[in-house]
User: Fold these one by one.
Assistant:
Number 1:
Amino acid sequence: MIPELGQFALILACCLAICQAALPLAGAQTGRRDWMVMARSAATGQFVFVVIAYAVLTHAFVTDDFSVRFVALHSNSDLPLGYKIAAVWGGHEGSLLLWSLMLALWTLAVAAAGRSQPLEFASRVLGVLGIVSAGVLLFTLLTSNPFDRLLPPVIDGNDLNPLLQDPAMVAHPPLLYVGYVGMAVPFAFAVAALLTGKLDRNWARWTRPWTVGAWIFLTVGIALGSWWAYYELGWGGWWFWDPVENASFMPWLMGTALIHSLAVTERRGIFKSWTVLLAIAAFTLSLLGTFLVRSGVLISVHSFASDPERGLFILLLLLLISGGSLVLYAFRAHNFEAEGGFRLVSRESFLLANNILLVVACGLILFGTLYPLFHDAMGAGNLSVGEPFFNVVFLVPMLPLAFLLGLGMHAAWQKMNPKTLIGRLRWLGIAALLVAVVFPLIAYGSTGVMTIVGITAGVWVTLSSLIEPVSRWLDSRAVRLTRAQWGMFIAHLGVGLFIIGASVTSAFTIETDRAVRIGETWEVAGFDIEFRGLRQVEGPNFVADEGEFELRRDGEFIATLRPQKRIYRVRTEPMTEAAIDGRMARDVFVALGEPLGDGAWSIRAQYKPMIRFIWFGCVIMALGGLLAATDRRYREPVRERAEAKSRVGKPAEQGGH
Amino acid sequence: MPALTRLRALARGASTLAMAALLALGAALHAQEIVEGFEDPALDARYRDLIHEIRCMKCQNQSIAESPIDQAADIRRLVRVLMVDGLSDAEIRAYLAERYGDFINYRPPFKPSTWLLWSAPVILLAGGAFVFARVLRERMGQPLDEDIDR
Amino acid sequence: MWRYAIPVVLLLVLGAFFYRGLYLNPTFVESPLIGKPAPEFTLPDLENPEGTVGTEDIAGRYALLNVWATWCVECRHEHDFLLSLAESGMPIYGLNWKDERDKALEWLEVLGDPYVASAVDEIGDVAIDYGVYGAPETFLIGPDLTILAKHIGPLSTAIWEARFAPLIESHHGAP
């Protein structure tokens, strides 16, 4: 009976979402205040019922209700409680419900914050969010109902996919979804601006913290996924350019471009239509990601069960929501053209270059990810586009971006003397190059062109991010940095650390596969590893072979590593759990391979230098974002200000736009 | 086809070697044998890079380096045999594509139907440069703000 | 002004490709060997260890080369169809892939033997030459040893009639 209540709650939520969409938008169009005001209550109501539906599904998992098909497919009575709760998002239907929940949360937050905005605008924002909510809820109810019954019920369930039975894997989807779904907020703001026909610096000031907020969660979510893949999949890799990974990375790239474009709009009131387009594009890519994962159009380790019917529904949703907003854009965007000059060397110029390079990068990834589809659809057969393509192609826009980043951070608005800019930073550049040349030789005994380029870029960005905070700290008379400035420098510091980690680990990773017997020791990258023993262990829902390895260096004991090879009782696929001794400077990674007979096992041991800088860099980026988003100027009430006040100088020749 | 027979003979030879190695393992494990790889570090590095670029045909998007299944191990063994036989990376990729199709290589081939793909970076970058120049020219002709507050 | 319409147009083009993509199968890989000569091989005969089975035996008429193994679950699904096909006169050669001789012989004894002869590919090198990556796979080979078609997965009446039978008929017509 209770699951049916959940379904009923979903239906109510959907109805409320439709109200949330229709009434405020119609009200804003016709000027009916009573309709516009409904937005907030509809949003609240929708939230309540989505929460109820979600709680009901969770309850079904926790109580082992195997009469619900979704629970039967993704849970088991032996599954630990924490994983039962996480199993809600372990499959297509439940993860859609999570999507709706996140969207309802964001909507509620936007509704609460919208009190300080003009009613017409605020109701349009909620109206657009309502359209998205309604679309997703309809999709859920019509094609992917998590509350479908399985009658007669099974005695016990199919267990959660063992790959998902892991803390990082539990946290990864919710965090990622908060980010993915959060991109709907700037999207809604953009469409509302198109509908209102007005976009000023206040709009940018409202939109930016929401965008940064969603971006922070995307950053952490993606980093968590990468970290999980590294230690769980047992192969030492941290990014595979899998279509679904790319699907989460593209909104991140667009989101980053959007944040920077908003900076220009907020400051100068220009790049408005471009910012609106980026906001629409970022959310379109989120929806596209949803489509790619669930439609079976591309092959991925991450794919949910594919179904052309579901794919078609999402495609229509995508075309309606994105297509609709882009049609609106085609008609209304010209209203946003504005004057505002800047010179070649100026912050605006650097931000423009930043945006272009990020969009190029995003476009290349999109093109590469979809190319097999294009190729096949044109009748030329099936094709694979993977790491060899993306690793090369991604660097083409990204390396220039890294170098420009270091400069752009210090550029003044409107115009700056290039000598001033370079003068300050020239020594940092030289220092970066020196470090890049010397460090690999000393630390790892070898080097290469791409290694030097990569480390130079990373160190350059790092030093450039640090110079301002450090110099102000040393000079007690200097003006203190605002929180937003701190945020910027710290976020860029994170980027620098990431680049260093990625470059070093790509260049100096050592992978070995050896046949080892118990009692033997072998050497990897200067470490001695001794295979001390093997035993059987039992977990709550699995049995495993556990190896015991002692890690030593120069005779000194470092750590005991216990990698496992697990077999889960219900889904009998074997799973490798690697054992890692992790430090910032390096990871040593040991995983059990296959038994070779006569007491010997094939053991995979890897040395991964500075790999933690990759995820540490991401965390620092997110921290920078958090600082930037909570700057005081966003928390103060916004004062309306006249747009075209002090434009001095010769009257502009109005020719083109 | 003599090439095939020769390679097959080599493969049989290599498998015999592998069998012998396994037997040797059984008999007396002296140094820790490399299970799958080469003693020569340069060759080993090349091998590891190459197997990351070849797709496991039966998997959901994994390279043969990452895949635990039997078929992937077969292809890895084939790659080692071909490397011993002196084929270059490009020749090994071509050998596999002849049998399994372009799908097996994660590095897309360079042929008319993929020119667009491989030239995309240059095209997009050129487009970007063009846009940058146009916007900059436009903005450079516009007045600066005299008084600009936060 | 018209440039603001570019994004919509791009989206619609993308949408068209996606729509097409929904009804394509991304895992379907066309074999590059179709239309090319079948790779030559000579392997031990399953039933007669002293003898051999190879492309020499297959040549001269339309025949199927079916890759099978006792560890392959799907092979069992197509076995009955293969038996009926063999009974109707279609020559089927087996390629016993990475299997054990005793198990293979037992399987054929218990379930029936649709094959004119089975070649034993213990190591799997011939299978690699044929681009095999997952049993069962079946090749249609013409009299001049050209590979006419390949099917991955269990064979069935529907697939036979849709893909393989028409090829034999059309080739019969050709001079």
Number 2:
Amino acid sequence: MRERRGWSQAELAQKSRLQPTAISHFETGGRSPSFDNLRRLADALNVSTDYLIGRSNEPTMAGPQTDELFRDYHKLSADDLEAMRMMKEALLKKTTENPK
Amino acid sequence: MISGLREQQILQCALETVQDNGFSALPVDPRTIAARAGIGLRSWEPDKAGISGFLMRHGDSFGIGYSTAIKNEGFINFTIAHELGHYFLDGHVDALLQNGSTIHYSQSGFVSNDVHEREADCFASELLMPAPFFKAALRQSGSGFAAIERLASLARTSIVATAIKFAKLAEDPLAVILSSGNQVEWCFLSPELKKCRGVNFLEKKSFIPSGSVSDKFIRDGKSVLAGDKLEGFSSLQTWFEKAPDVEFKEDVVGLGHYGKTLTVLFTEEALNDEDEIEEDEDSDSDLPSNRWRKRDQFRDD
């Protein structure tokens, strides 16, 4: 995607506010990006994070997926599930209002 | 286990996050950091304690949810900071995706077997109590449990999380020990105490030594639940059999409904008495030649 834009690693680093060495590591697989890194790269490249992580074949937000990371999974209660449902709705609304 | 190199990377990532967000002293507000990263925060109040928090991604939008079941500002701050750890640390995207599902989960408790949860805990501790800020505050906070209380109040962190940081960064010989009933759950030693001959980490489930202030405190079970405090003195040898017979202050506090007890062993007196080194070398040939030898030659974290 970077090459398709005709950008050098240094240019992408500058646009995404990351170190050029980090871009190199991500491309060679020497280091994995964080969610924060992914988001910056997606913004700079004007593609979705789903596309960058290989969950979508389309660079734009065709059908965003939801991921959850949380502690104490075994304790998940009905209240917790409801809280997660509400968060998902809020994020869906935000994504819909700000499509890429 | 997190390797020493990985721990340094995590601490560096947390410190950079703090500095990028313009903080230069305690307290560090994780809500500000989340807001600046465009991460929405939502709380919920369940009828009973369940999960403490979660990080959710939907496309390019992120949100952190946190439970208010435990009404403790320090605990809630740690939960938010922990979820920020999943967001800012490299490798956590892979952890989420490698499950083949959209859910990555872990067990509760301070010591998690899941390395990514431990990494997020390490990040959270440093985010809320960055070493440079914490050390500066520590030097003005006095000693013992009172210092931990002051620092927890300043950093808006829990007593337990603050006690662990305190032990790691204290310049004096000091140990913090968390016990449940009359058994040790964990023990952290300050760098200065680690150098001391005969001092080792107390093993999990080892018994609180009889004759210690903590032993006296725990025998009265009501004190633990009531959140009482007790101060006294113990010999270092009481806790660490092969350690020198040096008097340490011992502050003990019950952590209320958690049913656990926190012990702080400390002294403000220097331990590197040259006379004692000579005496020790003469009295026991099995002991190392340097009484206060460097621990990293012999032990691992």
